[in-house]
Amino acid sequence: MSQISNLYRLQQIDSNLDVAINSLKAIERELLDDITVLAGTQAVAQAEEHHKSVIRKLREAEDKSYETRVKIELAEASLYGGKIQNPKELQELQNEIASLKRFMIILEDKQLEAMMEVEDSESKLMWVNEELKEVQSKQMENNAKLNGEKTKLLAQIERLEAERKATLPTIPAPDLGLYEQLRKNRKGVAVVKIASRACSACGTTLTAALIQTTQSTGQLVHCPTCGRILYPG
Predict the structure, then answer these.
(1) pTM for the full model?
(2) How many domains does the chain have?
(3) Are strands 229-231 and 191-195 parallel, antiparallel or unpaired?
(4) 1 band by pLDDT with thresholds 50, 70 and 90
(5) In this structure, are residues 172 and 3 in contact, taking their beta carbons and an 8 Å threshold?
(6) Which segments of the chain does DSSP mark as H helices, in order?
(7) Quick one: which of 100, 30, 31 has its CA closest to 71?
(8) Under a CB-based contact definition with an 8 Å cutoff, are residues 205 and 197 in contact?
């Protein structure tokens, strides 16, 4: 009974190790996963670039409006300065001034539109920055929690590995080889407990004689269906 008990104890240790190692890997993957922060950073970068572009657009509209305003002022100065006497030239100048003023109205509309775009982009930039700060804060909190769990898991793995090392010498080499092969072929589970007269791994109902054999002999008894080693408990 001691022989199978040691194997079952090793199975418990290895199963707990598997769970702890898989949990540790999942935590490490999550710690490396910064996709949310990366998305937030990209959103901020895009908002900043858009903000710069609409500011450039506003500056261009302002410059164009200023240039047109100067042209109107110069043309009006020429019109009313008295230096031009030719009626045709005066008419052409009046037409030019009228055209410039119509164009000025269009430029002022574009300038107003650009100002509104700048205001909108400023609001968007402020919003995405706040979103990024919130995401970063949540990630920091989550990472602190994950690192705490990681520390506990590392301590648990270290303890289980020490228990495993202490258990291995109690198991004969042939039995250990069989155990390792079954672990490899049966998804990590080589030894299973009999529960309600059945194999707890595959559910196969066991005969009374087979159960008696697991309890009364020192030999390893296998489940007739899945091949795992049966532990009577």
Answers:
(1) 0.71
(2) 2
(3) parallel
(4) very low
(5) yes
(6) 2-32, 35-80, 87-167, 173-185, 208-216
(7) 100
(8) yes
